[in-house]
Amino acid sequence: MLCFYFSFFVFALVGHDHQVSALANLEEVFAWKELSFAWPSEEVHNAALKDGDYVPGNNLPLGLDRWKNKLFVTVPRWKNGVAASLGYVSLDEPINKTASIVPYPDWKANILPKAGGKPEDDNYIVSVFRVFVDVCDRLWVMDTGLADILGEPTVISPPAIVIYDLNTDKLIRRYTFKAEDLKQDSFFANIVVDVDKDKCDEAYAYVPDLGGYGIIAYSLKENDSWRFKHNFFHFDPLHGDFNVGGVNFQWTDGVFGLALGPADQNGFRTAYFHPLASLNEFSVNTAILRNKTAANDPHIYYAFKLEGLKGEKSQTSASAFDEESNSLFLTQLNKDGVACWNTKRHLTPENVALVASDPGRLIFTNDIKIDAERNLWILSDKMPQFIYRELDPNEVNYRIFRVKVADVIAGTACA
User: Which of 21, 26, 177, 377 is an S-S bond match for 181, by CB 3.0 to 4.6 Å?
Assistant: First the structure.
């Protein structure tokens, strides 16, 4: 049976330095006290509030990615009352900083079946943490299938990769993970896609399993998946302690962030990855991940490499790679910011540059993405407060920023 995995323990209030140390000129594009949604009508909105299908304070944005004038935003079903787990906000000018989330692909797909019921077809979304927009105008969604995660976890459907055509908003495929892909503590909170724009049908997706300590590889062409295991996927017991936004907590999340470098002459890439509870960064060539046979070959152990140490308090959730500068961007949860590392240099703490830091506005930088125009997008959401305490609805709790990559790395070791 699939079990939810998200490890958390006792929290304590700690002191916090409120001095703003923003190193980059970030543009605050969106800022919400609570998320709102683009309801079909006021009547539907009021009914959702009345029935508890929409509890404003329970809707926390977590993941993002951009496609043209749409900025996709995910809202995992941590608690009851999430209106829609996948949606977008418009980037058409003028931008409304408190824009309502438009459910994607539509409202129907985001509505949970009634108790005991099952979805009517494959075009549905249960609970999403992160998404990935590929170069072939497709949206890849990792649907956990799990609702009310922090309350009474309910498995609506097995974990699945859901793929949409962004030009038509039509479902391309829903691929449900096989039983052998899953462990008892499996939990899938991320997805990255390895594809060439001239070979769209030959895409591969890589999905870290933060609870079961593995990586699932999926071939679109073969419509098949396989699982890798490795010691590097496990958390570091010495670095699972976090102090973020005035909350102290301990997590045991394993392999989490994953980003792909540029393709080599054979079309393969370097996949950079790290456990969330760790200070190290690792890598493996995607020639390994694409090889189903290699998944069960013990000799591939040495194909996985330790890149180096990022530095103290450098625990990272998400990462993103900028090919032009050869730089890997890394969220810095314990530093209220984002750092970068030029992969042409050895990975040492001295070669990791903190490019954005703000203990007021960048509390828990949960996700980052780099779009086709080389904008770095950053989402911060105060998630520790959301999980362990309560957020103040009178304060801005969720923010999305953007900044040009060239600007944010200027004068740093990543330039």
Answer: 177
Q: What is the pLDDT of residues 95-138, one digit of tens each?
A: 999 999 999 999 999 999 987 788 989 999 999 999 999 999 99
Tokens 């790290």 -> residue: 274
Place of tokens 């309910």: 154
For residues 102-124, b (16+ Cβ closer than 10 Å) or e, as one string? bbbbebebbbbeeeeeebeeeeb
Region label for 87, one of left (φ > 0), alpha (ψ between -120 and 50) or beta (otherwise): beta
For 165-206, give the DSSP string: ETTTTEEEEEEEPPGGG--TT--B---EEE--TT-GGG-EEE
Domains of the chain: 12-409 (2.120.10.30)
> What's the rounded Cα separation, in Å, for the pair 272 and 319?
9
Residue 321's Cβ-count burial label (10 Å; 0-12, 13-18, 19+) is: buried
Whole-model pTM: value is 0.94
3-class SS at 373?
A: coil
